[in-house]
Write a structure and sequence with these properties.
Peptidase_S11_C_sf, about 400 residues, Beta-lactamase, 5-stranded antiparallel β-sheet, serine-type D-Ala-D-Ala carboxypeptidase, disordered N terminus, Peptidoglycan synthesis regulatory factor (PBP3), Domain 2, alpha+beta, hydrolase, globular
Length: about 400
């Protein structure tokens, strides 16, 4: 009987010890998870590496929220695309409409009928978050703000984003105008493929109409540009509904990261959360640069093209990301070309560069042509056919 009681006591002791241990471990895991919240004062947030798109931290990253002036990340993306295509010149003078001049909120106080260069309007958007400058450029590109908003939403679909819808180009409060931390990060990733955008978003202060009676002092709404080394963009946002938001990017060495916070209570909390994310990224990870944007990868040898040998280049910079101290297997790359239909325009996708770490695919990047490719003329085709036949003589 004593042995039985002893066995029962030992059993209860063992079970109690196990329960206490498991509870302690679960509590410890919970505390560890809580301590890893890099954006404790924000409703949502995300941290990604730009080249690979790898997520290093996320919190409610797919929750639909008002993005406020972070909307202008997409506005800037479409503007930079037009500049890169050559359909919009930085020295072009834009005449400001009554509609653009009437925008409230953040503005650079454009007057109806005033003319300003694309370059200065870009500064007004990137530095001071000018709603009037945003609408002025949108109207120049698409004819109206409404038409430009359609372009924005079409681009959202093209990028495969499912939780964003825009109603205006500025981020001013509007029904069914929303995005997510994840979607904003992907838009920022695309915007940063136009690397010259940081020439604007990295400016802390500047002047418009310098030397005139209407001189206007621009001060960047993103204070981290001045106070966090390596930060060179991108876009802040605030409305009473959205609270304090920020899509930021920073570069250290070859590594560029993007951090997004939405719904922070104060500017200080917003900046602190983004700073924590950036610290974590640069302290924990490192990258290996493989190719620069525009670097030649291969060539197209097209019999029916006027220029038979056409360079194929990386559409964006290509890197690998890994934790510091982590072993990396042998990296390998391979090119897969698409079926080609002529003619091609500069920037058209013609293939994919795949990067593997061992047997694991770690990235796939579009390859594009760096120049227009026209169909060969009948005379060119005739000459090539003769040359080809002569080889068999």
């Amino acid at each position: 009987m004593k042995k039985f009681v002893l066995m029962i006591s030992l059993l209860f002791f063992t079970l109690s010890f196990y329960t206490i241990t498991v509870a302690a471990e679960e509590k410890g895991d919970s505390q560890k998870q809580e301590s890893f919240d890099l954006a404790p004062d924000a409703k949502s947030g995300i941290l990604i590496e730009r080249d690979t798109g790898k997520i290093m931290f996320e919190k409610q990253a797919h929750e639909k929220l008002p993005p406020a002036s972070m909307t202008k990340v997409m506005t800037l993306l479409l503007i930079m695309e037009e500049i890169e295509k050559g359909t919009l010149k930085k020295d072009e003078l834009i005449r400001v409409s009554e509609n653009a001049a009437s925008m409230g909120g953040s503005q650079i106080f454009l007057e109806a009928g005033e003319e300003m260069t694309v370059n200065d309007l870009l500064k007004g958007i990137a530095i001071a978050s000018g709603n009037d400058a945003s609408v002025a450029l949108a109207e120049r590109i698409a004819g109206s703000e409404e038409a430009f908003v359609k372009m924005m939403n079409d681009k959202v679909k093209e990028l495969g984003l499912e939780n964003t819808q825009f109603q205006n180009v500025t981020g001013l409060p509007a029904e069914n105008h929303y995005s997510t931390a994840y979607d904003m990060a992907m838009m920022a990733k695309e915007l940063l493929s136009h690397e010259s955008v940081t020439e604007y978003t990295s400016i802390y202060e500047d002047y418009l109409r310098k030397g005139t009676e209407n001189e206007f002092w621009l001060v960047n709404t993103n204070k981290l540009v001045r106070f966090y080394p390596g930060v060179d963009g991108l876009k802040t946002g605030f409305t009473n509904e959205a609270k304090y938001c920020l899509t930021a990017t920073a570069k250290k060495g070859d590594m560029r990261v993007i951090a997004v916070v939405m719904g922070a209570g104060t500017p200080k909390e917003r900046n602190a959360s983004v700073s924590k994310m950036l610290d974590y990224a640069f302290n924990t990870y490192e990258t290996k640069k493989l190719f620069e944007k525009g670097e030649s990868i291969t060539k197209l040898n097209l019999f029916k093209a006027e220029n038979r040998n056409t360079p194929v280049v990386a559409s964006q910079s290509i890197s690998t990301l890994f934790k510091k101290g982590e072993s990396v297997d042998e990296l390998s790359t391979s090119v897969k070309l698409d079926a080609i239909t002529l003619p091609l325009k500069k920037g058209d996708k013609v293939g994919t560069l795949q990067v593997k770490n061992g047997e694991t695919v770690i990235s796939e990047t579009p390859l594009v042509v760096e120049e227009n490719v026209e169909k060969a003329s009948l005379f060119t085709l005739f000459k090539r056919s003769i040359q080809k036949l002569s080889k068999y003589d």
